[in-house]
Specification:
This protein is of the alpha+beta class. The chain has 13 helices and 13 strands. The protein has 2 domains: 8-190 and 312-332, Jelly Rolls (Sandwich), CATH 2.60.120; 199-308, Orthogonal Bundle (Arc Repressor Mutant, subunit A). 42% of the residues lie in helices and 17% in strands. The strands form 4 sheets. It has a 6-stranded antiparallel beta sheet. Strands 7-6-9 form a 3-stranded antiparallel beta sheet.
């Protein structure tokens, strides 16, 4: 769908295109001299897409408005939004755009692994209070008010500092978010899952998730996922549940129903088409599974207003348009 000259492409329309395909596993790489990854990018961008990865992600929106997808929820974003996304949670931010418009330096992203954090915490017990924050990140958390402002400032400082000073700002932003008052943080999605298990459990979850996402609209067999993890079915099943908290079958159902919720909310596709699109060839079975998960039929879910649909607490975006300058703006001496 190509926009006409001067036409605004609404994020809901963009979302509909993305939601018809599985989330992409993003491979996170950082330089050998870095223990975490910090970057800024434009929108549209090749890396700005519906994706998931085993790293934690802190995400700052500098410019523009639009819609986010976090886990099984779609909601609004504006300048100054700071979000924490847990391992394995699918996410994307889609801006309102004029035809051929580019939002330069829209995003600041910080990504780090659970192994990195645990390694730090094992020698620095002062980091222990951050664990509760990270454990809750499977819901996706959006921060607002002064917490978001202070976190945004620290995220920007990471990009313009080096060495020990740089890593001090990483710890500062984590501390800021861990200390956020209840009225300045909102849990976005229904309880999701994490991939912070160790060893064989982590391997099972990552292989299983990759296989599920690649085949959400097709027939899914645990035997195929186990083969990809180089495990027998009983071993794979045991490690998958231990590390993710869900059986493989329950995870498939959760992801399929979450995808169905997005399609019902963001497209006008017939319910039968939605059923097929999320891997249910039998419409009656789809209706039954949807009702078991959400306590209502797909048709009723679609009729409800966005604020009436079952979901996590909707974020209250008390966002400011003032922000810190980007790295490029600092280098160029541009005042914002």
């Amino acid at each position: 769908m190509k926009a006409l000259p001067g036409e605004i492409v609404q994020p809901g329309a963009i979302a509909a295109r993305f939601l018809e395909r599985p989330a992409t596993r993003e491979l996170i790489r950082h330089l050998p001299s870095e223990s975490f990854r910090w970057l800024e990018h434009d929108y549209p961008s090749q890396i700005a897409r519906w994706n998931y990865h085993p790293e934690y992600e802190l995400h700052l929106i500098r410019h523009g408005t639009g819609s986010y997808i976090i886990g099984d929820q779609v909601g609004p974003f504006g300048p100054g939004q700071v979000a924490l996304i847990g391992p394995g949670v699918p996410h994307d931010w889609m801006s309102d755009l004029q035809a051929d418009e580019v939002v330069y330096n829209r995003d600041v992203v910080l990504q780090f692994t659970d192994e990195w954090f645990e390694g730090c915490a094992s020698t620095m017990p002062e980091l222990n209070p951050v664990r509760a924050l990270l454990e809750a990140s499977g819901h996706g958390i959006i921060f607002s008010g002064s917490t978001a402002e202070r976190a945004a400032a620290e995220l920007e400082l990471i990009g313009i500092t080096q060495g020990a000073r740089r890593i001090s700002h990483v710890f500062a932003v984590l501390a800021t978010l861990a200390e956020a008052p209840a009225d300045e943080k909102s849990f976005v999605a229904r309880e999701w899952f994490t991939t912070t298990g160790q060893g064989d459990g982590k391997l099972a979850v990552e292989a299983g998730l990759a296989y599920i996402f690649d085949n959400l609209a097709s027939r899914i067999r645990m035997s195929d996922a186990a083969r990809l993890a180089h495990m027998s079915e009983p071993t794979f099943s045991k490690y998958f549940k231990k590390a993710s908290g869900l059986t493989f079958t329950a995870m498939v159902k959760k992801l399929r129903i979450a995808n169905a919720c997005r399609l019902l909310a963001q497209t006008d596709d017939p319910i039968a088409s939605v059923s097929l699109g999320v891997g249910y060839s039998n419409l009656a079975n789809f209706n039954r599974q949807f009702y078991a998960e959400l306590g209502m039929t797909p048709s009723r879910y679609r009729r409800l207003d966005a604020d009436e649909r079952p979901k996590g607490t909707s974020p209250s975006l008390d966002l400011k348009t003032r922000r810190n300058p980007s790295v490029l703006e600092v280098a160029a001496g541009i005042t914002v």
